[in-house]
Amino acid sequence: MKPKEIVPVRGGATSSGGSPLILAAICLSALVLPLSFTGGAVATPAIGRELGGSPTGLTWITNAFMLTFGSLLMAAGALADQFGRKRMFAAGISLYSLLSLALAFAPTVGWLDILRAVQGIAAAAALASGTAALAQEFDGHARTRAFSMLGTTFGIGLAFGPLIAGTLIDAFGWRSVFVLTAVLGAIAMVFGVPRMRETRDPGAKGLDWPGALSFTATLVLFTSAVIQAPESGWSSAYVVLMLAGSVISLIAFVVIENRVERPMLDLSLFRVPRFVGVQILPIGTCYCYIVLVVMLPLRFIGVEGVSEIQAGMLMIALSAPMLVVPITVASLTRWIPAGILSGIGFLIAAVGLHWLSLYTVGDSMFSLLAPMVLTGIGAGMPWGLMDGLSISVVPKERAGMAAGIFNTARVAGEGITLAIVSAVLAGLAAANLGHLLPDGGRDVAEAAQRLATGDITRAVATLPAVTHEQLQSSYEEAFRALLHILTGITVLSAVTVFAFLSRTPIVEEADGASVNVAT
Hints:
Blueprint: E1 7-8, H1 20-51, H2 55-71, H3 73-83, H4 85-103, H5 109-137, H6 140-172, H7 175-192, E2 199-200, H8 209-232, H9 237-257, H10 273-303, H11 308-319, H12 325-331, H13 338-357, H14 369-383, H15 386-392, H16 399-436, H17 442-452, H18 456-462, H19 468-501
Antiparallel strand pairs: 1-2
Helix pairs in contact: 1-2, 1-5, 1-6, 1-7, 1-10, 2-5, 2-8, 2-16, 3-4, 3-5, 4-5, 4-7, 6-11, 8-9, 8-16, 10-11, 10-13, 10-14, 10-16, 10-19, 11-14, 12-14, 13-14, 13-19, 15-16, 16-17, 16-19, 17-18
């Protein structure tokens, strides 16, 4: 797709060569996003040991960041078009760095949650404006290479983020993870912003505020309800009111977007069956890959007792295929439709998930490597194709809106998926513990939540009548059942993709302007 027409604020034509330093700075800013995502997950058990906090509060450390990041990504892009990409990038990356530094000195879990939520807003501003600015700095094949490097940077962050975070936590404590992201963000700001040109979209008419607010309210209310439900119960008035509020906000969002002149999300695209099919791709990868990036470190560190650095090394088996598989599978689209390859990938990931469910606590950690690698390979196949598919299944003139909807659905979906999976795991653990203590009541629910966040020590303290081994066994059974659920969802994703996209080959964009931006 072609980039939006730009107006250089201080003159000068669009450079065909671009600036290597600008590219390096934007890639560096992109690197800190998956580091924040994976680092926060690896650090959660250590944070719980030092600061305490409720299970719900610890869950929000990751979910708060993902929620605001995903819900405001398109809004940030619209504001960058209106007020200037350079200005928005500078504000986003500087605020992100300051918040990372503040997180390193957070005194309580509550402050961590608040700062992480605001950090997600800053991350959305930096990413949306940075990618838009990058499209203006490079032309033709140079732009293709630039966005390829940006996508590779995300892959590196996902693959090595847990290891980097684990090494830092082992050596300096969990606060050092946030110090690192602050330093990387500051470097990106110092070297990138002075060399960027200010550009705007002359056709921008401002942000669709009613649409943005109703969309954000829908996600916030729904995610909050799902996270709170294991503690308060699904039938509690608080949870029911939040769920009802999310439904009302969603209805309001649909009504608003169908009436405004320039909607934030063009919902008419959902009348295109193949476009609907494309939205299954990020949902499927969330359930077969993203949730494991968060849940497995919690299990390894908090329940099985391995060190943070060992957990990080184990996670490379899952994420390293993301550095190779997406590029490799893209070359196969010359002969095999992208939809077929994506469906095959989901089936491979489902096999890996089922294989992973056969692992039991006490087995050699090496027995985890093969199923994790297989799962990563399977997830990497649709991961490398879904950006191209998101814009190839709609008319070219609507490619920009299609990519925006897709990226918003992907990143926002990750936060929702994490909340749902955490609640399911806590519910499964509570059911298992209920068999041991039928009259346990709220103590059982709290212990189950502790287990879901990898805090088996406090789970033991909550249920002193239950042994450590019994708690570990209850968690293991719950996690195995969760993997079976994830396997089923992944197989269902494969079937849906085959049905909607099996005849849709990927279309190679000449400017390479689409990029995988999921964390």
